[in-house]
Amino acid sequence: MAADIPSFNLNTGAKLPSVGMGCWQGQPGPGRDNELVDALVKAINVGYRHLDTATGYQNEGEVGQAVRQSGVPRSELFVTTKLRPGGVHDPVKEFENSFKALDIDYIDLWLLHWPQGFTEDDGGFGAGQACGLEHQKHLGPTFNETWAKMEDIFLNSHKGKVKAIGVSNFSIKNLEILAKTSKVTPAVNQIEAHPYLPEHELVEYCKQKGIHITAYSPLGQYNASIHDDKDLNEIAKKHDVTAATVALSWAVQRGTSVAPKSTNEKRMKQNITLIKLSDEEMKQVNNISHDPKRSTRLNFFVIDKETGKILGWTMEEMGWDVGFLEEPGKSTKKIAEGK
């Protein structure tokens, strides 16, 4: 039985469940494939109806297997996957590989994982030099060119096999660049977002453009800051829930969907059980990022601490104003400064 959570309408008319299951479970290893399938089947049994994966996660096959094993009709499930930065040189091949690996009749949502691509393909996210912007055109396709190929796959060559296309990790700056040539408005922009990085301006911008926001790492990325936060725990205590429940409920209540990750059944159930926050409580969470010691990105996986670049791009090229605090909650020393 599906969980009693709201859904959001995409600009395609499709409904996206507000709480999905993120499928990035770290590096694959012996026994991990079966563990992931079992965990995802469990998540579907608990009530999840949205699974969020990516070619770069190297587990599309396992996600597809979980969908087929679940016993839930395909029409009741929403599956997202993503075109990795290393695959931008041949989006058709990448889509066909994802379609074959998932083996679930169709893909509900296909995202351009990052605005940047890479000159070399290592089978994962990519390697070599980053490309994607006009001044890097000599290195590889711009994200406008990659998007045009995704549009053709969606509208023409593979019509019906993918129900919607979107982007991920796009700032207002890069969405504006994309809009100059796009024929299809992205259905979704999936971004890092949580109380320490609310991205209020970007969320409002996308709302005005008809682009839905999905928050990845809505509870932080391998970081306890959100779970230990004083304001979130103060609110949680009033409702007899966890700080995580407060953070996820805040996200959905403000109109963004979320894709938290967990293989623990108890936490799965907690993450999909939302509460109603008062206007004052919503304001309290909104104000957390006003604290310079808590205004930070938490997805440290993407940043080179020596250069301060994000998958080969500068903060300015990403269009990001908020960088990474070295010790969230303790210091304001930045690994990468905003513009």
Automatic annotation (TrEMBL):
GO molecular function: oxidoreductase activity, acting on the CH-OH group of donors, NAD or NADP as acceptor
Domain NADP-dependent oxidoreductase: 20-288
Annotated site residue numbers, Lowers pKa of active site Tyr: K82
Active site: Y57 (proton donor)
Annotated positions binding substrate: H113
Keywords, ordered alphabetically: Oxidoreductase
PANTHER family assigned to the protein according to its UniProt record, in alphabetical order: ALDO/KETO REDUCTASE (PTHR11732)
Designated name of the protein: NADP-dependent oxidoreductase domain-containing protein
Protein source organism: Pseudozyma hubeiensis (strain SY62)
